[in-house]
Every structure is written in C-alpha cells, then in structure tokens.
Amino acid sequence: MNTPQRFQALSCAMLLLLAAILGCGKFSSGPTPEWTKLRRIAGKQQRLSHVSGLVVDDKFAYVTIGGTVADENEGTNGLRKVALDSGAMTLLDDGQKSPQSEPGGIAIDERFVYWNAGGNILRISRDGGKPETVASDHVGIGVDLAIDNEKVYWTNHSYYSANTPAKAGAIYAAPKKGGRTEIFVDQQNIPNSLVADDKFLYWLTSSSILKQAKSGGQPQVLYQINAKEGLDKMDQDNDNLYFGFRGAGNSRWALRKVSKQGGEPQTIVKTYSLKPVAVDETNIYFFDEDGLTADVFCRVPKNGGEVTRLDTGYSSGVITQSKALVYIASLDTIYGYTK
C-alpha cells in the first residue's frame, strides 16, 4: 500500500471511530448527575452551585459552594447551612473571599465551622454570625485541613508534574481561636490527606504514610512504597488508616488499610475510583467507576468481603456521614443514603 492509500485508510478508520463515538449516547450526553435511589437533600432550587466541601451534624449540612467567576456574579459563592430534613438554606458567608473549590478545605467541631477561603482559614458559629480569621499566614488557595480540640492543622496542596522535582513542604498548625501560625512538621514530600485523633496527626506523602505525636517529636513512617507505586486519599477510624494504593504498572487504584501502629497493609477492594471515602463502625462507603461518565456508590465491610453496589450516578467526590446517613455531592446537589 502506497502513502496516499495508507492516509486514506487511516482517515476512514478515524471517521468510523468518530461516528461510533458520536452515535453512542454514553459519550455524547456527558455526566449523569441523577442518583435514583439516594434521597435528594438540596440542590439548585436552594441556590447551591459547585459543591466542594460538606460536613454535617445531626440536623444540618454545612456546605462550601462556588469558586468560579460565574458563581461570584450570581451570588452562589461561600458557605451555606442546609437543613437535612427540609433542604431549607441559610447563608452563613457570602463568599467575598472565594472558598476552596475542591475537597479538603472544611471541618466542623461542636461550635464552629472552619473553612479555607481567599487564602485564609476562617471559622464561624454554626448558628451564624461574623466569620473570624483563624490563620492567614502560609495558607494557599487549596489546603487539606484537620482539627482537634485545640488546633487547626493544614498543608498546602503541592502541584507537580512527573518530570519536575517535588518541593518539600510543611504542615502548619494554629490555635482554633486564632493566633500565631507554627510549623508542625517540615520537609515533607507533597504532604496531603491529614487526619487527626486524640494523640497523633497522620498524613500521606508521595511515598509514605506517616504520623507524629501532637505533643512533639519526630515523624514515624507507618508504611513505605517504592518509586513505581502510588499513595493518595486517606481516612481513619479508631485503629486503622484507609488509603488509595496503586501498584507498579497498574492504572487502577486499590483501597487498602493499615494499622495506626504500622505493619503490613490489607487490600479491602482491588479497584475503586480515587475519591474520598467514609468509614463507620462496620463499613466503608466509596465510589467505583461505571464507565467514563458515572460512578457507583458502594459499600464494603471494613475487614474486606463482598462489595454491595448501592446506586449509580455522577459524583464530585465529596462525601461525609452522620451516625445514620452517608451524604454525597453531585455537582450542585446533595444526596443522602440511609445506612
């Protein structure tokens, strides 16, 4: 076959492939945000837009929304309080300081909601009022944030490419009522996914799971991987840490757990979508992939076992829980699932 014939054959093949793609509704219709089995809590009717952060108590959801120029113009930016029974929405912050537009920048305690907006960590009473600045030094536009009884801990997201050396970063801490920002630990390689318990702070780097006593000391490595493997997204219960692991040569991620004391990790599910999970006393709730434009909301026992497919739709990866329900966000809508 000469060169013009090869070119003609290649062009025909490309046209056939394009026709097949355009003829397939799965590719042409885009994300499908509707979940058919989960209960809708609130959405566009309550002027929610681009839900990026979500925490709950027994009666309310506290939601960061917006983060785009369009949201600023439409007034769908900032922090909102949503009644879980009725969906009624209350404005807590108007978003003049644009909130973080990705998961990881919101937390809650018994009195306050804490969130990252405009390069500041703010807090506001759950009943409303005026936002207070907790920290403004060393706060980027995207952070992973954790709290305990006394302090707020955060680390800035470090963006990097495969051929660019990663810059060592720090984890910072400040009093919850505001005050001096301090370095909790320094010289960490892309620290992320912070979680805290009574005594320790835990985090991921590009190659390790680490912990350090909140009272001080040196970081302890709980689990180490090699340069061809991957770690990302971490949550916890009282005794274990749950995280995404990608083996050498694999394109899909597995969900694993490791003891907070260290040791050999256990694989819970062999494949899942690399998004945050929710862990309760019995189960892990997570997302898996259902083709290119949808997710499967799944449940698996914490010790591993049969995976139960609960519903399908499109998730932005925002997930949290109360004792009775798991809540997820899909674009502009919050859904709840009764455990």
Defining key terms:
339 residues; mainly beta; disordered N terminus; four-stranded antiparallel sheet; Thrombin, subunit H
Description:
The protein has helices spanning 3-22, 25-28, 69-74, and strands spanning 39-42, 53-56, 60-65, 78-83, 89-93, 106-108, 112-117, 120-125, 132-135, 143-147, 151-156, 168-175, 182-189, 192-196, 200-204, 208-213, 220-224, 230-236, 240-246, 253-259, 266-272, 278-279, 283-289, 295-301, 308-313, 318-321, 325-330, 333-338. It has 339 residues and is mostly beta strands. It has a domain at 227-315: Thrombin, subunit H (Beta Barrel), CATH 2.40.10. The termini are far apart.
Sheet of most strands:
4 strands, antiparallel
Number of helical segments?
3
Highest-level CATH class of the domain at 227-315: Mainly Beta
- How many strands in all? 28
Unreliable spans are 1-29
Strand portion? over 45%
Strand order of the biggest β-sheet? 1-28-27-26
Distance between the termini: 63 Å
CATH topology of the domain at 227-315: Thrombin, subunit H
> What number is the mean pLDDT?
89
How does CATH name the architecture of the domain at 227-315? Beta Barrel
Q: Which class of secondary structure composition applies to the elements? A: mainly beta
How big is the Rg?
A: 22 Å
From the spread of the alpha carbons, the general shape counts as globular
Fraction of residues in helix: under 10%
